[in-house]
């Protein structure tokens, strides 16, 4: 799956350059141009890491970081033109995972992001997801409904696991293509076909099973 980044940066040209490079490097980027939009982006449950500029037009990046650290350990890399030792120390002491002084190369930014993401990964503990009668064993890559195994192809399993991680959440076809197939440019018919097959296999189980609901105009969700 492509890591999702929040880029909080008020310099439009710099933000567009970073976003373009990061997208090509395999990330999905959500750009916020001020502190207000940045706060919303940081609290989006789908964000894996924040790249945060300190000089924002409507507030301090450090205050934004301080507020985030009161409730979350979401990884944050500060990027700033403030290169003095006191600024770097302040950012790190408040809770930044790394501090990068402008100007810097985009390759270095990508390397720093990947390093922080590696450090923040939780231990590889097997997880069993449950949604109603559905159980998905992520270690065994096996799904059952009321104990009845589902015979799933690899992409069918990956699609079901993603939906089961967030029951009730609506995923667009583009999000599913991006997170399951790693390529949002594929035709949406790919998702339609796999959802159709998954529905058939869930319906074939001789016991009430969760269903995949189409939310017209938005996407799909798993209803336990």
Automatic annotation (TrEMBL):
It holds the Pfam family Trans_reg_C. Residues 126-224 bind DNA. SUPFAM superfamilies: CheY-like. Keywords: DNA-binding, Phosphoprotein, Transcription, Transcription regulation, Two-component regulatory system. InterPro entries: CheY-like_superfamily (IPR011006), OmpR/PhoB-type_DNA-bd (IPR001867), Sig_transdc_resp-reg_receiver (IPR001789), WalR-like (IPR039420), WH-like_DNA-bd_sf (IPR036388). The keyword Glycoprotein does not apply. Residues 4-117 form the Response regulatory domain. PROSITE patterns: OMPR_PHOB, RESPONSE_REGULATORY. SMART domains: REC (SM00448), Trans_reg_C (SM00862). The modification 4-aspartylphosphate is found at residue 53. Residues 126-224 form the OmpR/PhoB-type domain. This is Response regulator transcription factor. It comes from Streptomyces siamensis. The lineage of its organism: Bacteria, Bacillati, Actinomycetota, Actinomycetes, Kitasatosporales.
């Amino acid at each position: 799956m492509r890591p999702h980044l929040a880029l909080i940066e008020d310099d439009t040209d710099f933000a567009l350059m970073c976003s373009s490079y990061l997208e090509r490097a395999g990330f999905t980027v959500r750009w916020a141009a001020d502190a207000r939009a940045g706060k919303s982006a940081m609290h989006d449950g789908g964000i894996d890491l924040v790249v945060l500029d300190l000089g924002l037009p409507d507030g301090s990046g450090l205050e934004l970081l301080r507020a985030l650290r009161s409730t979350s350990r979401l990884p944050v890399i500060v990027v700033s033109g403030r290169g003095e030792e006191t600024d770097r120390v302040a950012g790190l002491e408040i809770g930044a995972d790394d501090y990068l002084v402008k100007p810097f190369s985009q390759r270095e930014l990508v390397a720093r992001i990947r390093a922080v993401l590696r450090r923040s990964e939780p231990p590889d503990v097997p997880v069993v997801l449950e949604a109603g009668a559905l159980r998905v064993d992520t270690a065994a890559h096996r799904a059952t409904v009321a104990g009845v195994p589902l015979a799933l192809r690899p992409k069918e399993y990956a699609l079901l696991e993603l939906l089961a991680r967030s029951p009730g959440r609506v995923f667009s076809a583009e999000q599913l293509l991006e997170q399951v197939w790693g390529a949002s440019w594929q035709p949406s018919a790919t998702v339609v076909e796999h959802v159709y097959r998954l529905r058939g296999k869930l319906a074939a189980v001789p016991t009430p099973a969760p269903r995949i609901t189409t939310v017209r105009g938005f996407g799909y969700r798993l209803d336990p």
